[in-house]
Amino acid sequence: MIIFTIGKISGLMDKFHWAKYIFSFWIVAITAALTAKYITSNTIVLVILSASLFLLLIKGFSSTKAYR
User: Is the CB of residue 28 less than 8 Å from the CB of residue 61?
Assistant: First the structure.
């Protein structure tokens, strides 16, 4: 039963290859927003800082071998 379930999940991940990125994107977005909020409360700086942190973290994720 467990082997069948793992095979089914593996097949689903092959069909939806982008699904492995969704969890990482959410974690990165939340981390960037909370970090920027901790640093400043100015709205304009907050948006710019959150976006730049998000892009830097996504660039780091894309350079790892597991996400290629």
Answer: yes
Q: What are the boundaries of each domain within the chain?
A: 18-67
Long-range contacts at 22-30 (CB < 8 A, ≥ 24 apart): 24/61, 24/67, 25/58, 28/54, 28/57, 28/58, 28/61, 29/54
Query: Judging by beta carbons within 10 Å of its beta carbon (0-12, 13-18, 19+), is residue 36 exposed, middle or buried?
Result: buried
CB 51 within 8 A of CB 43: no
Please name the helix (run of DSSP H) or strand (run of DSSP E) that holds residue 42, with its range, or none.
Answer: none
- The tens digit of pLDDT for each residue in 17-68 reads 555 666 667 777 787 778 777 887 777 887 888 788 777 777 776 666 555 5
